[in-house]
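go over this record:
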Amino acid sequence: MDLRRVALLLAEALKDIKNSQPNVYKFITSNNPYIKAEYDKLRIKLLKSLRIMAKMANLKDDYDLKTELKN
């Protein structure tokens, strides 16, 4: 049941990211250096999250998966 809930939350997060993509593109190309820097930080956080999810998807052992989820 926990895995199903996580899958639903991930799907919802991906939908939110898809809806915010035009906004992100608009501000990444902005002339305002502060806004551009903040969105660059956001992109880095998103990439780190995607790497963690990819790593978790490749885990075979349930114990390793539980450990990674806790981290």
The chain is about 85% helix and 0% strand. The CA atoms of residues 43 and 55 lie 18 Å apart.
